[in-house]
Amino acid sequence: MSTGFFGDIAQIKYEGADSTNPMAFQHYNADEVIMGKTMAEHLRFAVAYWHSFAWEGGDPFGGQTFVRPWHPQDDMGRAKMKADVAFEMFDILNAPYFCWHDADIRPEQGNFADNLNTLNEITDYIGEKMDAVGTKLLWGTANMFSHRRWMGGASTNPDPDVFAFAAATVKSCMDATHKLGGENYVLWGGREGYETLLNTDMGSELDHMGRFLNMVVDYKHKIGFKGAILVEPKPQEPSKHQYDYDAATCIGFLRKYGLENEVKLNLEQGHAILAGHSFEHEIAVAASEGMLGSIDMNRNDYQSGWDTDQFPNNVPEVALAYYHILKAGGLNSGGTNFDAKVRRQSIDAEDLIASHIGGMDVCARGLKAAAAMLEDGGLEEALKARYAGWESAEAKGMLESDLASITDRVLNEGINPEPKSGRQEILENYVNRFV
Asked: For residue 402, what are the domain limits?
């Protein structure tokens, strides 16, 4: 049933690369088979409830610019109206998944008991919408960064009562995610970090955070939740220093607290940039440790220097990301969540649809380019050639040797290597053939 919010926008169809229709897919053909799986199965697109429906258009220098029928978001009637509009959009886009924080879908009540009641009520309602539309839940999570109670952190808070409130909140969100058939559960430590070391006991905070995550894993097994537990790295914003800085930092944390076999990573393109990395770097780091879980797809404005959460529009960047995802065997239970928002001047309902069409098309183009590169094998051949010396028995044996023995060999054989080209420009030109 139409809510009227999207007017007469019909379900978006694939029309091909020659189409000039702004309300049609040019590249995302859900049923197209690539490397043995459909495009839909590879990409597993999800719509982010928070940016698309909960965000009101504010920024650090100005307030609300979106005036939606469900504003203000302060009672259950408007929460259900927001859900009606959300699922109408999921249907228009034929989006297979969506994601939420608890604070996106229910109004803040100011205390845990009432938050729990409204969360249970709205997730029952959302469950009915899911059955009617067919959109599934990729993951749920808890917002433990917006309300003032979280200003000093959640699991890392110096106040044990805040730790307790956080534990109860995460349990409720895990229960709701499990009830709705969610395929993963994410923890983003929005304020798990510090602003100054003058008032921070870092060792205690990290230990508390590690214990908290172990409790989450224990509860997952207790309730029989089969999805992955994911943590999401981010270097800054809102804390000056986040404990979950990047993929490598998170992996070190997980290993320290014995969680490396229980928890994987949800990686975001914008967060990678803030950490001084490329998105494909973060994906490759996680994949090398068997911890690649899911991705949040967006981009930052490279001139602004902060997390602008824009929809992706750079096919070469996206292609390299999916190249490493495909090399790692795909996203499994994860997916491509559009953790992206329209600009605060894009106030029309049509803008919400068009932004997702563009993002889905860019990802589709990137996926096809990535698959073509893998099938061509040019990059893999170049890698094999560059590291070919390590295939010899002598080179492999050196890794089992010691410094003194290696030194003797260098002296006896007169080893004096000449540098070899890394061929970077040639490889960059190769990639450009596909994108």
From this structure: 392-432
